[in-house]
Amino acid sequence: MERHLLWIALALAVNASADHNYQYSCQLDGETRLIEVAYLLPDQAVPCEVRYQKSDDEVEVLWRADNQEGFCESKAKQMVKEHSQWGFTCDTSQEPEGSVSMSLY
Fold it and tell me: Is residue 20 part of a domain?
């Protein structure tokens, strides 16, 4: 249990430097999946990446957009939906308040 909490604290600390990035935490049977939308330039929606991490595995970049606003957000929401269908409980409390057009992707 301590190791699990340490892992989550470390993941949050790493992401604290990117103040407008956000992530979803999905849990099932002691397993955690993190899905993060990372913005690579301050105060800009692109370029962005969708990063994914399974428990203690390395972070993977699954998608990247250089000029398509809303693409990363759409892909992240799609992953959250899939994880929920697989039985994971996903925390969406960090989801940004503004609406981003995600129906294009």
Answer: yes
Task: Note the pTM of the prediction, 2 decimals.
Answer: 0.73
- Cα distance between residue 1 and residue 21, in whole Å: 27
**Structural domain includes residue 102:** no
Residues ≥6 apart with Cβ < 8 Å to 91 = 24, 25, 26, 27
Contacts by residues 21-26 (CB-CB < 8 Å, ≥ 24 positions apart) = 22/94, 22/95, 22/96, 23/51, 23/94, 24/76, 24/79, 24/80, 24/90, 24/91, 24/92, 24/94, 24/95, 25/90, 25/91, 26/80, 26/83, 26/84, 26/88, 26/89, 26/90, 26/91
- Domain around 41: 2-91
Please count the structural domains in the chain: 1
Residue type, 39: Y
pLDDT of 49-59, one tens digit each? 999 999 889 99
In a domain, 75, yes or no: yes
